[in-house]
Amino acid sequence: MLKGKRAIVTGSTSGIGLAIADALAAAGADVVINGFGAADAIEQERLSLENKYGIKAYYLNADLSQAQSTRDFVQQAAELLGGLDILVNNAGIQHTANVEDFPTERWDAIIALNLSAVFHGAAAALPIMHKQGAGRIINIASVHGLVASVQKSAYVAAKHGVVGLTKVIALENAQKGVTCNAICPGWVRTSLVEKQIEALSVKLGVSIEEAARELLSEKQPSLQFVLPAQLGAAAVFLASDAASQTTGTTLTMDGGWTAR
Ligand code: NAD
């Protein structure tokens, strides 16, 4: 479905980003992956994408919490790929504390990566997409772009910002062949959430699996985690021709979380 398309997925050395890179590659796209981790494990992932799907996969190590390095990263990635059709802004981090205890440095780091990197990435990608007359920007927001939870001020503020930014990019580019949409997942069992499960298990004095069930039962009516591969399939849809008139939307995948 995406044969010959050229895609960037930020924060794709683990979790949701890796699953999205895998799904885009499986659909035929060449991909640039990015994120932190052990060099040999990342190289394994890169090679595995090429071997499984017969596409070109590249890795670029860039810290996307810095404005200029985010813009340079998108530029370099587009040069490697020979153009840019799909930008998935996925990299993100979390920290939990009440507002009065939230460290300034954590606030700044979350806003820089979860929100500002989406802006800088899009700003660098759009001129390239305009020249081509086509492009897809897919922002991995969260249910926390739509509703709030306690102790997540920076994350909720950043993700609400991403949903707003998604709408602005969609409107500014509605006649330029570029769509911009946000995917809003509920709980997905990645390292970002595993830390929260571990903290809950300590707080409640229960096993990890009991804590995971408790986490789900508080917010996610299906009582099941969203699977990274399901988010990959959603990204493939948003990048496909079928979604050419889908823009400025939020695609919620949350087991019913925001329906209550
Ligand atoms: P994860 O921790 O598994 O992956 C995060 C990725 O971002 C990793 O590849 C990491 O190396 C990379 N990264 C971290 N800091 C970076 C930086 N400064 N520059 C470049 N890359 C950096 O987490 P995940 O759960 O897969 O999260 C991916 C996205 O999905 C995030 O934006 C997160 O907010 C969002 N999300 C996650 C959930 C969930 O339940 N896991 C729910 C909703 C939204």
UniProtKB/TrEMBL annotation:
GO molecular function: 3-hydroxybutyrate dehydrogenase activity
Oxidoreductase recorded as keyword: yes
Entries under Pfam families matching the protein: adh_short
Keywords recorded for this protein, A-Z: Oxidoreductase
InterPro entries: 3-OHbutyrate_DH, NAD(P)-bd_dom_sf, Sc_DH/Rdtase_CS, SDR, SDR_fam
EC number, as in UniProt: 1.1.1.30
PROSITE patterns to which the protein is assigned, alphabetical: ADH_SHORT
EC class (word): oxidoreductase
Entry superkingdom: Bacteria
SUPFAM superfamilies linked: NAD(P)-binding Rossmann-fold domains (SSF51735)
Family statement drawn from the similarity comment of this UniProt entry: Belongs to the short-chain dehydrogenases/reductases (SDR) family.
Protein name: 3-hydroxybutyrate dehydrogenase
Organism ancestry: Bacteria, Pseudomonadati, Pseudomonadota, Betaproteobacteria, Burkholderiales
